[in-house]
Amino acid sequence: MNRRDFLKNTVKGVAGLGISAAAIEFLNPKDILANINKDTAKVRWAFLVNTYKCVGCGFCVKACKQENEIPYDANVTRTWVERYVITKDGKRYADTPKGARDGFITTKIEMGKDKFQEVKDEDIQKAFFVPKLCNQCENPPCVQVCPVGATYQAPDGVVLVDRTWCIGCGYCIMGCPYGVRFFHPKYHTAEKCNFCYHRITKGLKTACVQACPFGARQIGNIKDPNDPITKIILTERVGILKEEFGTKPQVFYIGLDREVK
Amino acid sequence: MKSHVFRPLLVVIGLVVIVLIIRVFYVPKDFGIHERGYMYGWYREGNIEEWKTQVKVKYQGKEYCSGCHADKVQTIDKTPHAVIQCENCHGPANDAIADHPSEQRPKLTIDKTRGQCLRCHSKLHYPSSGRDKIRGIDPDKHNPDIECVMCHNPHKPSLEGLK
Question: Nearest CB to B40: which of A17, A106, A143?
Answer without folding.
Answer: A143
